[in-house]
Structure formats: structure tokens, C-alpha cells
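C-alpha cells incoming
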């Protein structure tokens, strides 16, 4: 799949209405697939949507590259398994991961953020998009992603309770930015972080209420990484099986 930086370098001076029509239709179909069944194409599809009104043949070529990828993974699907959950998670226990880039969209300088919610070894809710505002630091960008994830977690916990699967412990949200975790856990405001903490105090409240729990994770094990940028093939192949529930723990 193609990095958005390459897309931004493509010429957009020559606009062909016929190409725009084909491109828009194709991206609409890719969005449907990315939102509903294939989470690993969420980032690249989100990047392609930024050129809906100024796409060229080169942009269309990139979109068709995603189609070729989908053709190659038609036999892969999301698989949930409640009988043998991946440690340290328990059966029917929701957990999540959230990540963000920093100012990687050159025209707007907004950050790409992503999160995924998992249960019984596979993802069931995910999102990859640009932030609504421009972050002033990597910490703020990560906190935006974390708070968006926390909102989805709150909804998922309520839904699980209605279905009879009450979450008895705080939902773990894995985060690889230490500064963002400190701001979520610490209600004390400092001059350098006051503007951030006030804007995203919702996550702090959920933490205080025992609804969520920030958990540190190394960047190499941050599964939401594939939703914030185009990674190398080894990293992509490392995270996608976790999202799809293809990696199951070995029974002792």
C-alpha cells in the first residue's frame, strides 16, 4: 500500500471529470470495506479520500493498488475465539490500543490518529482518520487519539453490559507515549500542559471513575501503528494478524 507522502507529491493540475467520477466511486467502495470488514486498509483509504475532488490518473493507480491487495487477502477474515483468549486478556474482556502520528498531513499539518477495540482475540471496532485540530506536540496528538478511543470504549462497555457481558475491571488502553499517559493519570495541571489537559479532561474523568486504564506498551508492539502511517512490510505483517485474530495462544 502507498504512503500518503507519495500521494502528496503527485501532480493535481490536470483534472479530468471522468477520472474524478471513477475515483470517487472506487474510494466509496474502499471506504465501505475499510469501515466494515478490512481494518488494515483504513489508513491508506483515509489518505486516498483527501483527493476526491482533485484526483488524477496517478491517484487512481494508487487506489487500484489497494484493490490488488484486497484480491490477495480474500481468504483472510476477522476471527473471534472466546475459548482461548490471548494473555493477559480474559474471555469477553474488552481492551484497546490507540496511536497517532504528528503533523504528517502537509497541507493542514493535522495528525493521523487510529484506535482499535478488541475482544476475544480480534478487533470489533476501529477507526483511522485525521485529527479535527492541529496538535502542538506529539503528546497532544497522542492524547487526541487516546481520548477518541476512550469515548468508543465507554460506548462499548455499555453495549457489552446490555448484552450480559459486564466489564468488571477497567478497560486497558495500550499507549506508547509516556507524556499522554501521565496526563491521563495525573489531574494536576501544569502551565505547559494546562491547555491540553483541559481540552481532553474526559479521559482523565474516565480513568478516575475506573472505566479505563492506560497501559504502557513499546512502540514495536503498538498495534494501532498501522492505522497512522504506512509501515514497512515486516511491521505490517506483525500487526495485521493480531487485528484479525489469526494469532492464537498455545494451549498448555
Amino acid at each position: 500500500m502507498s504512503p500518503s507522502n507519495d500521494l502528496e507529491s503527485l501532480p493535481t493540475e490536470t483534472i479530468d471529470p471522468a477520472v474524478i467520477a471513477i475515483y470517487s466511486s472506487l474510494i466509496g467502495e474502499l471506504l465501505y470495506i475499510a469501515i466494515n470488514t478490512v481494518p488494515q486498509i483504513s489508513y491508506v483509504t483515509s489518505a486516498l479520500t483527501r483527493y476526491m475532488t482533485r484526483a488524477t490518473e496517478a491517484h487512481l493507480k494508487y487506489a487500484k493498488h489497494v484493490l490488488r491487495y484486497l484480491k490477495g487477502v480474500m481468504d483472510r477474515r476477522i476471527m473471534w475465539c472466546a475459548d482461548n483468549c490471548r494473555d493477559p486478556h480474559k474471555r469477553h474482556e474488552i481492551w484497546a490500543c490507540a496511536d497517532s502520528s504528528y503533523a504528517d498531513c502537509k497541507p493542514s499539518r493535522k495528525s493521523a490518529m487510529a484506535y482499535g477495540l478488541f475482544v476475544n482475540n480480534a478487533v470489533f471496532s476501529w477507526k483511522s482518520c485525521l485529527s479535527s485540530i492541529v496538535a502542538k506536540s506529539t503528546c497532544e496528538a497522542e492524547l487526541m487519539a487516546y481520548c477518541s478511543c476512550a469515548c468508543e470504549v465507554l460506548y462499548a462497555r455499555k453495549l457489552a453490559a446490555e448484552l450480559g457481558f459486564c466489564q468488571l475491571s477497567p478497560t486497558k488502553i495500550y499507549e506508547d507515549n509516556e507524556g499522554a499517559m501521565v496526563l491521563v493519570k495525573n489531574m494536576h495541571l501544569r502551565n505547559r500542559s494546562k491547555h491540553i489537559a483541559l481540552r481532553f479532561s474526559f479521559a482523565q474523568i474516565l480513568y478516575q471513575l475506573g472505566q479505563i486504564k492506560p497501559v504502557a506498551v513499546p512502540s514495536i508492539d503498538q498495534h494501532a501503528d498501522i492505522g497512522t502511517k504506512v509501515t514497512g512490510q515486516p511491521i505490517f505483517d506483525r500487526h495485521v494478524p493480531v487485528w484479525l485474530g489469526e494469532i492464537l495462544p498455545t494451549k498448555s
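note: Residues 95-244 form a domain with the Nucleotidyltransferase; domain 5 fold (CATH 3.30.420.10).
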